[in-house]
Amino acid sequence: MSKAQRDAVSSHRRHQKAKGLVRVEVQAPAADTALIREVAAALRTGARRAAQVRSLLRRSLRPQKSLLELLALDLPDDVMDEALARPKVRGRDVEL
């Protein structure tokens, strides 16, 4: 790469950094290349569409609640405490 090309790349990256953008490299299947570029373009806009994309991605990547967690949300605390309580068994008698 010539000095002029290096300077141009350096200048471009400096301008992007001043705008608050960073360079990111990802590895993904070739089939997802266009999708990743579209997502990156939408996020770069900083507009309402970027907020929608962020929200959608965060919702879809959030860990799903287990069935127990979903059921626990609807039950009163005392019922959950009773269901999760350990039995008060001291063990078996042992003859020494």
Give an overview of the whole structure:
The protein is an all-alpha fold and 96 residues long. It is built from five helices and no strands. The longest helix has 16 residues, at 3-18. The protein is elongated, with a radius of gyration of 27 Å.
Main beta sheet: strand number and arrangement?
A: none
- Proportion of residues in extended strands: under 5%
So how many helices? 5
Series of H and E elements: HHHHH
Which descriptors would you attach to this protein?
0% strand; 96 residues; 61% helix; 5 helices; mainly alpha; single chain
Task: Please sum up the structure shown.
The protein has 5 helices and no strands. The chain is mainly α and 96 residues long. Helix 2 crosses helix 3.
Give the topology:
Blueprint: H1 3-18, H2 33-45, H3 48-61, H4 67-74, H5 77-84
